[in-house]
Amino acid sequence: MHNTNILFIASTSILLFAPLQLQGQDPALEAQKHAGQQIYMTVCFACHQPAGQGLPGMFPPLADSDWVKSKMPDRLIRMILHGITGPITVNGKPFVTPAPLMPPQATLSDQQIADVLTYIRSSFGNSAPPVTTEQVAAIRSTEKARSTPWTEAELLRISVE
């Protein structure tokens, strides 16, 4: 009976995790994306919409976004921590919203920011590397004295390649 239970548990584990391994999916990364999706649906979707399309002329899309798909997430982390004000051009289209364009979300933890950015950077037609809590913590520390939202011009001076 004991051997049967062990065999059942082993078989069940293989069946549960084999599809993830066969597809090359990392269970920890999938958990991070799922957590990020929950944060997105709570904090971000009202402006950026459930499918990341944004609202034309007002709220920029995250779907297939030139800002989201960069190699490094440094600009995005700064936007979440301090917000962004003024006009911004995304995928060649201007967006002008009453200030601030995006309010700061600095109350989110480093883990929450890493999770939501990993979700956004792997969803809506985007394909970019995951974001780590270490990346978020480093930028939070570097920019801790900042008290104003970013502008597009300031963010464009930050290398993300």
Strand content: under 5%
Secondary structure tally, helices? 6
| Morphology call | globular
- Strands of the widest sheet, in order across it, are 1-2
Q: What does the average pLDDT come to?
A: 88
Instruction: Write down the secondary-structure element order.
Output: HHHEEHHH
The fourth-level CATH homologous superfamily is Cytochrome c-like domain
Task: Find the count of extended strands (DSSP E, 2+ residues).
Answer: 2
- What CATH calls the topology is Cytochrome Bc1 Complex, Chain D, domain 2
Give unreliable regions as ranges: 3-22
Oligomer state equals: single chain
How many structural domains can be distinguished in the coordinates?
Answer: 1
Describe the sheet with the most strands: 2 strands, antiparallel
What CATH architecture do you see?
Orthogonal Bundle
